[in-house]
């Protein structure tokens, strides 16, 4: 049986060029998606540039995960266009896309009890047969260390807790070393410490020149770590900009249909968002 690495290795593909600081890694223009009878995205425009973290926030059903899937070219839009690394997403082959963007879905079930290290190593499959294949061992080790999963490298993935599985899945994405990272709720199953760890990793990757687009429900994390935030509401981008500009009580109250108070953190100055609770 051919392995995942074999499937990538036999295909000719154009390797990504070095990414210039500030260059556009992914762009959505006029993006619309309809699923069944529901308009999930409606004329969405969004860009993410090398060196920045962009957070997608909004209430349940706002279109965040759908937008991320469209940005990854895993979901074809009904209209509009997604461009990755300067080209229409559908102009790249699947192996070429895998060299340019890595994707962390909300959940990734594995049916077989692969050892943790093997799961992380799956992220290196796109580089099989290229000059960067020699980086495999170092990339896997670095990704596991960053996500603090090295100590259970030999443990079956299926035996891990939900939070541990989430960190292993992120390690796989990091090992891929694509210049665009697309992460769907990477902190959902994590405790407080590891939520902070994941967002610090996002900032580190941006500092190294990657573009990071991350779906978050925690507005405090988005405010603390994102360069820009896109607030989605009913399939549209209600506001896009720096968190301290767009996270206003008026906007968030309207979007979430929940009164909130927004005030600066006493140490960092980043916005703190607190729901108004009725006595």
UniProtKB/TrEMBL annotation:
Keyword Transport applies: yes
InterPro entries referenced in this protein's UniProt entry, alphabetically: AAA+_ATPase, ABC_transporter-like_ATP-bd, ABC_transporter-like_CS, P-loop_NTPase
UniProt GO MF annotations: ATP binding; ATP hydrolysis activity
Domain called ABC transporter: residue spans: 26-259
Keywords annotated in UniProt: ATP-binding, Nucleotide-binding, Translocase, Transport
Record protein name field: Heme ABC transporter ATP-binding protein
